[in-house]
């Protein structure tokens, strides 16, 4: 890697840091879908972080065709972008999935290559037919119909839904007053072996954060060299569910560039001095 490439990488880091500084501070949101202001209900609906937890991959659900499947059928190859939603949700779930698709569409990564997409409905009464219709709609919005086989919209029975929701820390409750589910908003990144790697809260998922999350979940086996360097300069903050600039890492990167630059300057001067000595010796012989 030459000095010019390193300088370009450093400039990319500086440009990204300026963008980060311009962002407003993140405030976690529960994203409740309920008109019920019952305090106990509101307290029950939250997102707990279980980073590193292993999902029970033998848990059974139904795919869009109604076939019984196990979660492990979707793991083992690449990271998973994961969401718990329900398809008849009047507002929040649509916002979550729409924004997720919009951010994924801006990535250079592609479902089936670097990641897959998996959603599970928290409503046990929802059908595979409804899940199939939602899947087609979101893949159409993604504008890459060829990725359809790598989007998975599952439905299931209450015990299995609760089991996975509890494992990822996603708390939701049925609100009898409104006839809807009260639930939090956010998406997750899972590793190829089914562990929880990253949480992204709220309804906005910056493309940069999704890129870094997928790269880390893949054990950094994907991503361009510049993206790999940028990842070194950011760290994931579990309290906000976002990546923020790591100042010390930037200083280390800048220091590395400086050391390499000084080293190259010394080599250049030594070579020039050697040529001058050789030139002087030859002149004396003549």
TrEMBL record:
Disulphide bridges: 89-93
CDD domains assigned: SCO
Keyword Membrane: yes
Gene3D superfamilies linked to this entry: Glutaredoxin (3.40.30.10)
GO molecular function: metal ion binding
This protein's UniProt keywords: Copper, Disulfide bond, Membrane, Metal-binding, Signal, Transmembrane, Transmembrane helix
Transmembrane regions listed in the UniProt entry: 250-270
Annotated Cu cation binding sites: 89, 93, 183
A Pfam family: SCO1-SenC
InterPro entries: SCO1/SenC, Thioredoxin-like_sf
Region forming the signal peptide: 1-22
Homology family: Belongs to the SCO1/2 family.
Name under which the protein is recorded: Thioredoxin domain-containing protein
Organism this protein belongs to: Caulifigura coniformis
Taxonomy of the source species: Bacteria, Pseudomonadati, Planctomycetota, Planctomycetia, Planctomycetales
């Amino acid at each position: 890697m030459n000095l010019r490439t390193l300088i370009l990488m450093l400039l990319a880091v500086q440009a990204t840091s300026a963008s980060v500084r311009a962002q407003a501070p993140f405030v976690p949101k529960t994203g409740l879908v309920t008109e019920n202001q019952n305090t106990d209900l509101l307290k029950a609906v939250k997102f707990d972080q279980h980073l590193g937890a292993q999902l029970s991959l033998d848990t059974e659900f139904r795919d869009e065709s109604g076939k019984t499947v196990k979660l492990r059928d979707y793991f083992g190859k690449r990271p998973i972008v994961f969401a718990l939603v329900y398809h008849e949700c009047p507002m929040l779930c649509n916002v979550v999935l729409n924004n997720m698709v919009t951010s994924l569409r801006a990535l250079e990564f592609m479902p089936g290559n670097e990641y897959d997409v998996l959603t599970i409905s928290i409503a046990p009464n929802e059908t595979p037919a409804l899940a199939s219709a939602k899947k087609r709609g979101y893949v159409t919005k993604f504008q890459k119909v060829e990725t359809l086989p790598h989007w998975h919209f599952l439905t299931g029975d209450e015990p299995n839904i609760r089991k996975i929701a509890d494992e990822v820390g996603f708390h939701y409750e049925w609100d009898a007053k409104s006839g809807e589910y009260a639930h939090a908003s956010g998406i997750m990144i899972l590793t190829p072996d089914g562990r929880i790697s990253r949480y992204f809260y709220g309804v906005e998922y910056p493309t940069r954060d999704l890129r870094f999350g997928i790269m880390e979940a893949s054990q950094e086996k994907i991503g361009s060299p510049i993206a790999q360097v940028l990842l070194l300069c950011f760290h994931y903050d579990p309290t906000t569910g976002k990546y923020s600039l790591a100042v010390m890492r930037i200083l280390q990167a800048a220091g590395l560039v400086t050391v390499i630059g000084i080293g190259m300057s010394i080599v250049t001067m030594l070579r020039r001095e050697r040529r001058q000595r050789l030139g002087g010796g030859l002149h004396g012989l003549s």
